[in-house]
Amino acid sequence: MHNDIEKILISEEEIKEKCKELGSRLTKEYEGKFPLAVGVLKGAMPFMSDILRATETYLEMDFMDISSYGGETRSSGEVKIVKDLDTKVEGRDLLIIEDIIDSGLTLSYLVDLFKYRKANSIKIVTLLDKPEGRKVDIKADVVGFKVPNEFVVGYGLDYQEKYRNLPYVGVLKPKIYGGE
Ligand SMILES: O=P(O)(O)OC[C@H]1O[C@H](OP(=O)(O)OP(=O)(O)O)[C@H](O)[C@@H]1O
Ligand code: HPA
Ligand SMILES: [Mg+2]
């Protein structure tokens, strides 16, 4: 598996440090509140697990499974709910946790949905931001790292469902995508 990686963009150590830093920030921001942390499956799973264990406040966790990429490296543009939340959103302070904002389609769909469901507040935390990928205007409130306009894998991010369990974020060798 490691052999398929051309270069590591963000190391395991850098991710660990960042989760601690962002966790302390969220601890302060949600002091005295009881936010609903919404993990966007499947990609956000490792990041959610690490950042929330560094967030020292009461919180509730729930998950939403959204899909728009299928097995491709480009968004189909059609966002589908595979699994909805079990929790009522009305009046809650939502903390949406994502692995990456690329085109922005997934998050803009979710933000609209949660506004419609009358959330009290919505904050977006993403490990990675790929600003050059953007098709709709949306910004995260908290960003771990910016990444260049390349398809990245690892730490939750997949290519054809593989590589999510890499402890770092990297770029695949071109031959893995069927390139030369
Ligand atoms: O900003 P966007 O262009 O919408 O891309 C970001 C979304 O795409 C990926 O999920 P995907 O739909 O591939 O599902 P997955 O998390 O199960 O891999 C990623 O985990 C984000 O949720
Ligand atoms: O660069 C990416 N890698 C993996 N999954 C993704 N979903 C959106 N962008 C990406
Ligand atoms: Mg994916």
TrEMBL record:
Purine salvage pathway enzyme that catalyzes the transfer of the ribosyl-5-phosphate group from 5-phospho-alpha-D-ribose 1-diphosphate (PRPP) to the N9 position of the 6-oxopurines hypoxanthine and guanine to form the corresponding ribonucleotides IMP (inosine 5'-monophosphate) and GMP (guanosine 5'-monophosphate), with the release of PPi. Residues 13-160 form the Phosphoribosyltransferase domain. Its cofactor is Mg(2+). Pathway: Purine metabolism; IMP biosynthesis via salvage pathway; IMP from hypoxanthine: step 1/1; Purine metabolism; GMP biosynthesis via salvage pathway; GMP from guanine: step 1/1. Its EC number is 2.4.2.8. This is Hypoxanthine phosphoribosyltransferase. It catalyses: GMP + diphosphate = guanine + 5-phospho-alpha-D-ribose 1-diphosphate; IMP + diphosphate = hypoxanthine + 5-phospho-alpha-D-ribose 1-diphosphate. Pfam families: Pribosyltran (PF00156). Belongs to the purine/pyrimidine phosphoribosyltransferase family. It is found in: Cytoplasm. InterPro entries: HGPRT, Hxn_phspho_trans, PRTase-like, PRTase_dom. Keywords: Cytoplasm, Glycosyltransferase, Magnesium, Metal-binding, Nucleotide-binding, Purine salvage, Transferase.
